[in-house]
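Q: My hope is that you can spare some time for a protein that puzzles me. Underneath my words sits a plain record pairing an amino acid chain with its backbone structure tokens. Those tokens are not coordinates but codes from a learned vocabulary of shapes. Thank you; the sequence and its tokens follow:
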Amino acid sequence: MDFRHIKAFIAVADTLSVTKAAERLHISQPPLSRHIHQLEEELGLTLFLRHRHGVTLTEDGTRLLEKARALDAAGTEFCEIARQMARGEKNRIRIGIGWGLWDVVNRLRVEFSKQHPDITFEVRDVYCSEDIHDQLKTSALDLVLARPPFDNAVIDARTVLPNGAAINGPAELSAQLASRPAMLAQALTEKLMIYGLGRGLDYNDMPAVRGINREAARNDYRFSSLILGIVMSTPFQMKTRADSEGKSSVY
């Protein structure tokens, strides 16, 4: 039995008109009529009586209508659950985290989840380079955040950056980042600000970010300049004062 036949039956029963039912289903009348005839032939029953002004349900049609609605609802629910399962699999990222990195990675994960609530994470510990290599090689993990050494024979370091540049390995990535210091400084400042503030950034924070980067540019984008700019920024100073006042009120 085709679900299109069930939907056609319900639409015609609701409107008591093939013309109106076809408009409701966004199809022409001939295929809709075929769906009804095919359903009647499959069931061995007459569902509608045709007349000049439209159609009316037969007694059999009336008795089957609620069953058809239940079947249609079950089919819709089945498809939606299947889509949710498919999205869940596609939107699941399996991450391995090395020793000493849990706190940093967890903060980034929390902020990322706020911006992308449809993405879920499956996180586990990785203990040594052999463990990392095995889990990446068998696709048990999608991503590992850990400290070197790594086996280059296992890790595929090829990718394409958002600007279209193809890279292969850390050296080429470093070269690409070094060729765009302003872009790198902007991204790094935002991530460090998120970590320092313990929350995501909003439009009120962006003037501070731009100011930090302007000052860093005058200092040849030194890392120390970025750190000093963040520590002295208004958002960070406000957080520091709020934290201090909160501790004082406790005592």
